[in-house]
Amino acid sequence: MPAHLRPLRIAAHAELISLVILLGNLATAHLKPVSSLVGPAHGCAYLFVVGATWRLKGADRTAGAAAFLPGVGGLLALRLLTGPDTARHHTENRQHTEKATRS
What we know:
Elements: H1 6-27, H2 32-55, H3 61-66, H4 73-82, H5 84-102
Helix pairs in contact: 1-2, 1-4, 2-4
């Protein structure tokens, strides 16, 4: 995975894990300290995922829209950004840019 996507990958996993913890807490003991601690962490991770996805130069509207899905949106956006078609597209763009700068 490209190094520039590492913060997005970390935030996407943090978002998913925090959502699982929140829903688990809601379904079981519903402890207020857990909600008070994990809720804001989940919100920050969610906002970071959305912002980071929209700021990426290689992100299209589909990846940006996927980032808005709570919990799994960041992982879906990463999948869209690092899929086989995307890697081929970036390689073709880089080659096209290199040819244009040489001319």
